[in-house]
Amino acid sequence: MAPPLQPLRRFREASGPPRRSLLAGVAALGALGAAGCSRVPTATVAGGGDLLERLRAAGVVRLGIAGEIPFGYIDRNGELTGEAPELARVIFKRLGVERVQPVPTEFGSLIPGLNSQQFDVVAAGMYVNPKRCEQVIFSDPDYQMLDSFIVRKGNPKGLHDYRDVVEKKARFATGTGYAEIAYAVEAGYEESDILIVPDQVAGLNAVEAGRVDVFAGTALTTREVVKKSSKAEVTEAFKPIVDGKPHVDGGAFAFRPTETKLRDAFNVELHKLKESGELLRILRPFGFTEDEMTDLTAKELCGR
């Protein structure tokens, strides 16, 4: 899970669906992965960076992940997976880098960790937004994301967007650091009235228990979490309103500002995957659909 509050998400600065849930027990793995990897001074912006050449020579790229399903996480077998790591495997192999190595961290530590060279690339489904674009450079998005609501079966209050939540005085919840906080506030909801829960699972529980009328999250995570619920359902995906206009978020890989050569080479391969349809094949096992495919660019989302 972004755009928005500080620190925002998931797709946001410290955001998104549970990015912390799978960090326990894997931090040590990340520390071991980082150990023994020498940190070298970053190349000048004018030169575009030499990281790609160094990665090819080393044969491995270190990926910063935040332990969030389905974006980048360690599974029950201790294996690195998620839409971003799987996509990274394909693209970096095409770029001549055979292996990917996870470096787990908190979502809010991804950009600082990248810029301090604790890892080489952020592979965590990070939303591209202007504030983050001041700190890192992004590939073009590999997916786009709309919002949707978890509501009681039948959607008794008829909640389809943030304006409905405000007008119908619905009890509203979303996740810690989620971009949806800002979206609800922009629609006129009092921030102090928002119930903040750890993640989408807690949000589902709150709706099922009747503590709130609605939980807001990304279309993908809400749709996945309600699959086994007999009491709740997910609404149709919709575009939140940002600065008075319908907004679509896009998630991408982040690179140090000096490493434009690597980012550009990554984009070339990403666009090939989009054109061939292979991108959807890679992302589909993680719940992504044709609706999440996008032609958005980082430039558009950075606002420049």
Automatic annotation (TrEMBL):
Solute-binding protein family 3/N-terminal domain ranges (all copies): 60-290
Signal peptide positions (record): none
Top-level division of the source organism's lineage: Bacteria
InterPro entries membership: Ectoine_EhuB (IPR014337), Solute-binding_3/MltF_N (IPR001638), TAT_signal (IPR006311)
Keywords for the protein's UniProt record, in alphabetical order: Signal
SUPFAM superfamilies, alphabetized: Periplasmic binding protein-like II (SSF53850)
PROSITE patterns reported in the protein's UniProt record: TAT
Name of this protein: Ectoine/hydroxyectoine ABC transporter substrate-binding protein EhuB
The species this protein was found in: Streptomyces pimonensis
Encoding gene per record: ehuB
